[in-house]
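Incident review: delayed structure delivery

Summary: a single-chain prediction request sat in the queue longer than the usual turnaround. Root cause was a stuck worker, restarted by the on-call engineer. No data loss occurred. The affected request and its eventual output are reproduced below so the record is complete for anyone auditing the incident later.

Affected input:
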Amino acid sequence: MIERNLLSIKNNISKVCNNYQRNIDDINIVAVSKTISIEKIEEAIRAGVKVFGENYIQEAKEKWTILKSKYPDLKLHFIGHLQSNKVKDAFGLFDCIQSVDSENLAKEILKLQIKMQKIMPIFIQVNIGSEQQKSGVNLKNIHEFIKYCCLDLGLEVRGLMAIPPADHNPSPYFALLHKIAKENNLKELSMGMSADYEYAIALGSNYVRIGTAIFGSRS
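Output delivered after worker restart:
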């Protein structure tokens, strides 16, 4: 099932790239594997997935300590809300943090980079729909926060990440994230999930975070 689902997703991505003059090599599928068993993850690996996303540090440690030693070429991205006191754990396991949303978290990443002699690529999470219940940097502070991370701290900011409001047309939010990235000379965007990744790619996404469409509904 997973192999068939991935084939269907890749076909859809190919069509969108053709229609919107995107280079298919610029599109990365991040398979969101929270709550997914090691067996299903390995099925996805056999089907060609190279990048995975996890939301919770403890769950990721339990699964990926084993998987990373077995498949050293895989990349693991942290895509959930990260508390500053968990950054050390994230450094030990992840290859990228996609959800940087506060000065405290950014400073902690810099501190760990110096201590562990390891550069951690990051995405800045933007609260693109200004939703109170969601993580992410407020829109009115985003330009200032990008400058803080890039210039003041010198972090390796790859780009921006966002989750548009549910039950809204996602396209205006994707377009806004693309505009903010362009204004700040950031090249990469992590936007689009199972229900809206085609819209996201059409509007400039490089990383689509897909869970349900690959693994099926979570119990």
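Verification: The chain has one domain: 2-215.
Action items: add queue-age alerting; document worker restart procedure.
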